[in-house]
Write a structure and sequence with these properties.
Blueprint (H helix, E strand, L loop, with lengths): L1 H7 L23 H11 L37 H19 L1
GO cellular component, one term: endoplasmic reticulum membrane
Protein name: Transketolase-like
GO biological process, one term: pentose-phosphate shunt, non-oxidative branch
């Protein structure tokens, strides 16, 4: 994940819903804590927020959910993200052709 977020992916951390940002789908949703740690390191959220993981008042749930700025799809069951990512890629390609 470190290589993807810090050396490969293109995104604007100040504009999480920018349509030109690369997308990341965590198919193994219950591995969300490592994703949140990467987000903190990349500056998407304050590092202190990591201490609120899975607390009722926190946005850092046990699985990534779309209410989080950089989450496009909720995942949970293993492999669920593959279909979602394929659909997102197909839709993106379709809209790129429409321009």
């Amino acid at each position: 994940m470190a290589v993807l977020f810090f050396h490969t992916m293109r995104y604007k951390s100040q504009d999480p819903r920018n349509p030109h940002n690369d997308r990341f789908v965590l198919s193994k949703g219950h591995a969300a804590p490592i994703l949140y740690a990467v987000w903190a390191e990349a500056g998407f959220l304050p590092e202190a927020e990591l201490l609120n993981l899975r607390k009722i008042s926190s946005d850092l749930d046990g699985h990534p959910v779309p209410k989080q700025a950089f989450t496009d799809v909720a995942t949970g069951s293993l492999g669920q993200g593959l279909g979602a990512a394929c659909g997102m890629a197909y839709t993106g390609k379709y809209f790129d052709k429409a321009r």
